[in-house]
Amino acid sequence: MKSFSKKHGRIIILLFLSLLFIFAPVNVLGVDSDGDGLDDAVEASLANTYLPTLQFVDGELFFPASIDYHLSNSILKRKVGDSIITVDTSPTIAEIAVLTNVNDNYFLENELSFEEISQDYNDWKEVNGYFVYAHVKPDMADGESYIIVQYWLFYAFNNGALNDHQGDWEVVEIILNSSKEPLYASYSQHESGEKTSWSNVEKVDGTHPKVYVAQGSHANYFRAYQGNLGMENDIVGANGKMINWNDSDLQVVLLKEVGTGTQGWLEFAGRWGALGGGAEELRGRNGPLGPKYSQDGSKWQSPVSWGLGLFTVDGNWFIMNWLVANFLLIFSIIIIILVVWKIYGIVKLHRKGGLRLWANLRTRASIGIILGIVSIVLVIMALFLPWYITTINIQSGPFTTDGNVDVLVIDGIRGVQVNLLGDGLVQFFGMKIPFLIIILALVVLSILDLIGMKSSRQLGRKYITGGIALLIPVIIILLFVALLASMIPSFAGGEVPAELMTISNQISSSPMTGSYSGSIGEYGVVQLSWGLALGSYLLLMAAIVKIVSGVIALTSKGISPSITYLPPPPR
Are strands 415-419 and 405-411 parallel, antiparallel or unpaired? Predict the structure, then answer.
């Protein structure tokens, strides 16, 4: 009887445990190894649900790699004052994991050249594939609860137009509400980024956001035609390699809140690339900090605040981006239509004997006609000359120049260019206004108006309108320069060096012309001069001449626009 009771007791205990297993809530049995309040299984599921598809541009050299690639090719160094100390030629994760002070200035420098890194990485990726580091955590903002899914992407090299450095960390963030419903997507771009509502995100297979990655800089965009608005001249498109979310070569690593073991690299507070001084920082040559320390740790520690604080884009913004990206095509179509229409009008008027150019050249209107031709010549000359120039002369310090150096140049062919005192002039301000095409189109239309003139009055009105149009480029340049200081922080999206802001404030305060001499931080004593250049003055002169020619043609007594209908030619 005693053994019978023990046997049934064990059966009852087993039945109780079975019922407990069946009816117990999932979170009772779940594992939350990083202690953030989300089970590991939930984090893994969300990370896989919203894993992005990455669309690159043709010609891209670098794709998301593992940190092991960079670590295995780097030397651990430390910057102490102006000296660089080699700490370890073969650093390990365990070694860098204890280096948790940003101010200690440790960095992992790959001593290969850019070409060597490019070839070495290409060989590596053929064997190892592509890597995405997923970070999933709950977060709060303004009393609301959210779940954040971040995808950290590491690139071996950033070879952008305005920054060129080893290592590159970018992030794609999906913001979910407490019910795990997606609300927003936030994409990093240089030192800032953009966010949009989940409904505006292009998706692959329902839940996987499509990310358009800029060539070289690896900034992330929502559309293939973006990248034209901003300080960087980003090249974005859909004509290159695409790493789909379910590609067999893509590996997803789920990151924990605290870096331990193989994830100890998360605690490394140094740079993932070479580290120079303030001059190198300004020129965009220093390697980036890792995920936990990027932008003072805001992306990692407060991802909701970071993501929601980005510039919001919507359908209207995408339309504007599309128009800017396709401006040249749209403008060309309009000009072609106008040219064809004007040529058709000239032919039709010629058949009716209504052309009056040669007849008006024998009247007082000829003065206006000739001045109009002079205006066209001045415009063509202006295209090949700078329209605005800013020069700087630094006699000592890390930015010492050899006399006066152009640091900002605007012209009709290359648009806006800047010199970061290291690599010469490079394209700046993504919204490239094709002044060359616009002005050449105005010249062609002016010539056709001249050939097809019916009367001096008609030509005079068109000359006046054309003269006013020639003032527009100069006005745009002055407005751009006047607003430059206020535009730089918003387009840069992050902290702008005080020296750069000092220089831009000096220029914006007096956009037409000015000069400055004084001490500016690390620059030391500098001499600045800026103002409209010869090309702008030629444009202004051309505009004035054309308006005057229009007034003369409008007030002169030219040949009346009577039309003689000529008989059709004999067959």
Answer: antiparallel
- Please tell me the predicted confidence (pLDDT) of residue 21: 37
pLDDT above 50: residue 404: yes
- In whole angstroms, give the CA distance from residue 458 to residue 454: 7
Positive or negative torsion for Cα 259, 275, 279, 232 = negative
- d(Cα 62, Cα 122) in Å, to the nearest integer? 8
Strand-pairing partners, residue 389, are 409, 531
Instruction: Name the 3-class secondary structure at 566.
Output: coil
- DSSP designation for 295: G
Provide the residue count of the chain: 571
Residue 466, helix vs strand vs coil: helix
* pLDDT at res. 449: 84
Q: Return the ∠ at Cα 226 (arms to 224 and 230), rounded to 5°.
A: 155
Q: Residue 316: which residues within 8 A CB-CB, separation 6 or more?
A: none
Token pair in block for residue 241: 């390699």
- The domain ranges of the chain are 32-322, 347-555
Tokens linked to 515: 């000069």
Residue type present at position 468? I
pLDDT bracket for residue 14 (50, 70, 90): very low
**Does residue 339 register a pLDDT over 50?**
yes
Q: Do the Cβ atoms of 527 and 505 come closer than 8 Å?
A: no
> Tens of pLDDT along 22-58?
433 434 347 988 888 999 999 999 999 999 999 999 9
* 293-302, 437-446, 507-516: segment of lowest average pLDDT: 437-446
**Nearest-5° Cα angle at 250, 245 to 255:** 95
3-state secondary structure of 420: coil
- Please state, in angstroms and rounded to a whole number, the distance separating the CA atoms of residues 154 and 128: 14
Say what the pLDDT of residue 501 is. 78
Instruction: Give the CA distances from residue 220 to residues 195, 211, 384, in Å, rounded to whole numbers and listed in that order.
Output: 11, 6, 35
Question: Beta strand 192-197 with 311-312: parallel, antiparallel or unpaired?
Answer: parallel
CATH fold of 347-555: Butyryl-CoA Dehydrogenase, subunit A; domain 3 (1.20.140)
Tokens of 368: 């206006």
CA distances from 325 to 220, 242, 378 (A): 17, 21, 30
Residue 393 forms beta bridges with which residues? Answer: 527
Residue 40 φ then ψ, to 5°: -60, -40
Tell which residue, 485, 534, 491, 542, has the closest CA to residue 513: 534
Q: Six-digit token pair at 528?
A: 């600045």
Closest among 433, 199, 151 to 313, alpha carbons compared = 199
Q: Which two tokens stand for residue 211?
A: 């990310």
Distance between CA atoms of residues 499 and 522, nearest Å:
7
